[in-house]
């Protein structure tokens, strides 16, 4: 296990992946029109298993669930299921803009957790200042006068925050548990298989597990499964296994920017002064967290 700094290859991937994750929030909200959020999570996890296994077969990647990682793998799978239930439901209740700003505060919670749980990834002056700034951005994102705060929006914001916590916990587990012995593909399969097994039977119990599904939504859903879920998350897990936990978030500020931009372009989300301030503070805080201290 290494904790090296981000290089050019990793930086390029993280830029692309961050933008795709921002777009993904819009895609999820669109697909929610055609299927229940929990059914979407369950189906996406289940279908993504097949291309991952095909990829492993042709690239001769070894999958080993009995290298001591089974228990933490199962826990990560449960957290993965909970994370995406919360996130997809949040997008059913709140706007893409608000959910993107809240969910992608993950680097903040990851940095706090890494300080206590990961060796050589402790808080320094930059990270502390960045955390304070990013948390101010989060406050601006969720603040609403009480008389204007719709209860569904409140739950959507809360679910997005809890989903962010789950993502940070999974990231920390990948660096501190026996999952460090597993390949990125094995780590992802743990999460997909466990979440699929748990959620698919549950999702079928909802009367509206299929809503207004059409061919366009099926294409959007297929893009999510193949490009974002399979290719994107394999790459992210590989980077998590090779680079410093907090440094992997170096370009994470691009994701809320992308989410807000795509929410405005595609979903007609309102962007006002409050959103601009929140976006600036959140992104600047994440940038400061990951900025290397100057050599003196």
Q: What does this molecule look like?
A:
The structure is a single chain. The protein has 296 residues and is mainly alpha-helical. 73% of the residues lie in helices and 0% in strands. It has helices at 8-31, 37-59, 70-93, 96-103, 106-117, 125-142, 151-176, 184-203, 215-242, 254-267, 273-290. Helix 1 (8-31) packs antiparallel against helix 9 and helix 8 (184-203) runs antiparallel to helix 9 (215-242). The longest helix has 28 residues, at 215-242. The radius of gyration is 19 Å and the shape is globular. The model has no long low-confidence stretch (mean pLDDT 85).
List its traits:
single chain, about 300 residues, mainly alpha, 11 helices, globular
The percentage of residues in β strands lies in under 5%
| Count of DSSP-assigned helices | 11
- Rg to the nearest angstrom? 19 Å
Which spans have pLDDT < 50 for at least 5 consecutive residues?
none
For the largest beta-sheet, the strand count, sense and barrel status come to: none
Distance between the termini: 29 Å
- DSSP helix fraction: over 70%
The chain-level mean pLDDT equals: 85
The gross shape turns out to be globular
How many DSSP E strands?
Answer: 0
Order of helices and strands: HHHHHHHHHHH
Helix/strand structural class: mainly alpha
């Amino acid at each position: 296990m290494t904790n090296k700094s981000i290089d050019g290859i990793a930086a390029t991937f993280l830029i692309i992946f961050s933008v795709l994750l921002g777009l993904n929030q819009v895609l999820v909200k669109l697909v929610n029109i055609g299927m229940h959020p929990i059914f979407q999570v369950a189906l996406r996890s289940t279908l993504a298993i097949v291309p991952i296994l095909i990829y492993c077969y042709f690239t001769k990647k070894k999958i080993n669930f009995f290298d001591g990682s089974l228990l933490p793998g199962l826990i990560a799978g449960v957290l993965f299921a909970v994370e995406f239930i919360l996130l997809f439901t949040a997008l059913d209740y709140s706007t893409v803009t608000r959910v993107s700003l809240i969910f992608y505060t993950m680097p903040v919670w990851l940095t706090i957790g890494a300080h206590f749980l990961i060796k050589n990834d402790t808080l320094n002056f930059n990270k502390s200042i960045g955390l304070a700034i990013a948390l101010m951005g989060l406050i601006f994102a969720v603040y609403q006068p009480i008389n204007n705060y719709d209860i569904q929006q409140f739950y959507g914001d809360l679910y997005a925050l809890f989903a962010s916590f789950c993502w940070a916990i999974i990231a920390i587990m990948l660096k501190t548990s026996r999952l460090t012995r597993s390949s990125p593909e094995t780590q992802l399969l743990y999460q997909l298989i466990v979440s699929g097994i748990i959620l698919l039977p549950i999702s079928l119990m909802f009367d509206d597990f299929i809503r207004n599904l059409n061919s366009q939504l099926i294409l959007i859903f297929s893009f999510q499964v193949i490009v974002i879920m399979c290719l994107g998350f394999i790459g992210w897990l590989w980077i998590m296994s090779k680079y410093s936990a907090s440094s992997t978030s170096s370009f994470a500020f691009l994701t809320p920017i992308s989410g807000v931009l795509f929410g405005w372009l595609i979903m007609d989300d309102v962007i006002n002064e409050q959103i601009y301030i929140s976006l600036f503070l959140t992104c600047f805080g994440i940038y400061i967290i990951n900025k290397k201290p100057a050599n003196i």
